Amino acid sequence: MKEHNILERFKRIWARTGTRMGFVTLLVVLFWLKTLLAYFVDFRLNLSDPFQFLIVLLNPIATTLLLFGLALFFKRARFFYPFLFLIDILNTLLLYINVIYFREFTDFMTVSTMLGYSKVDQGLSGSSLALTSPHDILYWLDLVLVLVLLATRRIYIDPRPLNKRVGFAVMSAAFLAFAVNLTLGEMDRPQLLTRTFDRTYVVKYLGLDAFTVYDGIKSQHTSELRSHAKKSELSGILKYLHKNYAAPDKQLYGVAKQKNVIVIHLESFQQFLINKKVNGQEVTPFLNKLYKSKSTYSFDNFFHEVGQGKTSDAETMLETGTYGLPQGSLFTQLGNDNTFQAAPAIFDQQGYSSAVFHGNVASFWNRSNTYKNLGYQNFFDASYYDTSGDKSLGYGLKDKLLFKDSVKYLQHLQQPFYVKYLTVTNHFPFTLDKEDSTFKTPDTGDKTVDNYFKTAHYLDQSIKEFYAYLNKSGLAKNSMVMIYGDHYGISNSSNKSLAKLMGVNPDDWNDYDNAQLQRVPLMFNMPGYKKGKVEHTYGGEIDVLPTLLHLMGISSKKYLQFGTDLFSKDHNPIVAFRNRDWESPDYTSVDGTIYSNKTQQEIHPTGKLKEKIDKIQKHVNQGLNYSDSLNQKNLLRFYHPKGFKAVDPQDYNYADGLSKAEKLEKKLGLKSTSLFSRNSDRSTEKLYVTDAPEATHKSTDSNRIKITNQDDTSGK
Ligand code: GP9
Ligand code: MN
After folding, report:
1. Does residue 606 carry a catalytic annotation?
2. Backbone dihedral angles phi then psi of residue 252, each to the nearest 5 degrees
């Protein structure tokens, strides 16, 4: 009896498919199910809580309803049905090519990739057939079945047109659903659309259709800017940079010529940690030693200058000598097709090999694509290490393991090399497993602030272990190590809790203090060197590239870089922040308010001083504007520095890095300069000592890496 009822009910519902509204509903539901299949089986969206799960369940509905609902405006059945089918087929196609693309690239297809404009990810390698899977049939089966049912009259064709008002009502419902969706997304991830971390984010919160439209509008905007750009627009930039150029200091030019360059990117590491004691214990004893060593040039008035692109902005400045973008990340927005004349390529053309070591997934900040345009030869991302179980935290492999596990690749790189280590453990929310630390944290009442010292301490230890290896293996004496902090770890909203630890009354804490806390460390360490010291020059991340090149004996003059050599007597000590605030040796500007650094008080400049301040602001604006126009209009494609060979991203492929390096060693034979070859073809891995307990843990199936990124300005 009950079964009979259910059957009856089904029949009644099914009969509705014979109406236009019912038929649209049927296709919307089927498409919704297919999207969920893609979300949960093929895409890895890394859902971290039930709220995100809910968002993902809802997000296909709005756009599907909107697109399919358009059919309701057709009066005649012979337009209504084919149109609806066409929309369904096209939308399924979009979904399906993304499924295939994701299997190869762990990423979503951008409009410029689809249209073949992107210089990287030129399409699927090998045959796409190899990327198909048996369950793919489910993506198309519904279309076939519905067609058959229509043909066999199991679904009736409804000749009655609907009133336009029904169409409008459905459209309104779709817009409403989208608004709800966007609100939920913004609640979970503030500034979702402006910051653009990773394509997964937008798909996760708004769905694939919305992502494609959003991406299409953005790339349309960029390509319009570009198509109107002319070579002549370079002339203003060239004039500005020429006027600002600072010639290198003769004594220091080339002190590290032909040495290996090892860049260590200290995640979220601020200058105040240097020489800081908590509960009587030094937080970063090893870095403190390096900081004051005679073999190091350290800077204590060096500032980060990142915007919303955080780590990727720091990378942009250090690799290209240009600023990050006013909104979002240059890596994600322009990294796929911009022309760069960047550090890896400059070093390459001096006979260097190059690599990045990073324990997070390659798609984060669109690195895997951008690095190819920067000219990086190797990218040893998370896929090169065992990141399972407790070996990783949210942003990737723990630092101690990253340094240790990098050695098996590093030792095979031809020397001299230019390599970069992107650490991750000292990242918001600064959590660490118990087994990793015995450091006694302070007690400020703010967990984020307290834990920051613990993860910073861990980072310090990991660098100490790496240095021990550099010394034992002999790499140290042939290398220059450049260490810098990428940006703040403690956001302005938490600075009051920090104040207590800095010996300042939290009630007196103000914008001036926040600005001063944007100092991060910068050190050039040359083991064996004796003339190092702590420099008090004011500078920022934009100044690093020309400084580094000059120490390496490479002229920066022909390149378009917006900073100046920190060691040059002509160095410009004005530090521009991405929001147009600035810092100089005498004054600080925050939101248009000027402070005197001497008195730490707000001032109201008049007369000559006002003129001076206005001039500084003009200089800051000009630098940022010119840099933005250079990048957004991709003007470097018109600029051909003499002797510089343009980068072709297609020359790079980051799979099988180790076997490629080994092949090269074999080919070069006695001429191979890798550490491994120099060590009589013996591995140096045994020289590495770490106290990381996870180093001996067995690999497991679980993995903590999730593609999440904390917007620190949004709070917790
Ligand atoms: C992730 C890491 C963190 O790969 O670089 O980036 P951030 O959140 O600091 O910009
Ligand atoms: Mn960072």
Report:
1. no
2. -95, -15
